[in-house]
Model the fold of this input.
Amino acid sequence: MASQTVARPELTKRRGALGVGVAFLVVVLLVGVGIGYYVAPRSQAPPGGEDILVLSDATVHPSVLAGPMPDMFSFVVGGLKNPTVQVKPGTQVLVHFLNIDTDLPHSLVFVVQAPPYAAGFTAQPAFTGAESANPIAGVPPGGNATFSFAAGQAGTYWYVCGVSAHASSGMYGKFVVQA
Done:
């Protein structure tokens, strides 16, 4: 007896649809991985372990966010947490300060004193005008301040929160004026 193969069109259609579905999923996964590569958060620390933001124009406009969650005792500048900010001597610095903390006031003062900071540390500005208004009381939650100053002589300075015990809790970063 001869064997006879009977074609079943519905089975062939199912296999074809399954093949198209699998191919579609493979393409979506490959594209998704590619997109994820471009939108996934990048490591922000350079090889030396220190985040450095170099601002090289004669006038710079850093936006400084204070109190981002979950670490309310930090600043974010240029998307980096408490980075070292570097400018040239004589740079005009126009700071746009925003307190994004929902509970606490924060301020911003550029100082000469290096960490560690005591809980009762009183921040004295290193440059004329290098502080937000009422640095001890701070800017209220959701508030903002704009201030400007000229970066003076070359050296290492610090930006800190002037509200009591905030700098001692880690709310500071390095500000380098480098020729």
About this structure: The CA atoms of residues 27 and 145 lie 49 Å apart. Residues 52-177 form a domain with the Immunoglobulin-like fold (CATH 2.60.40.420).
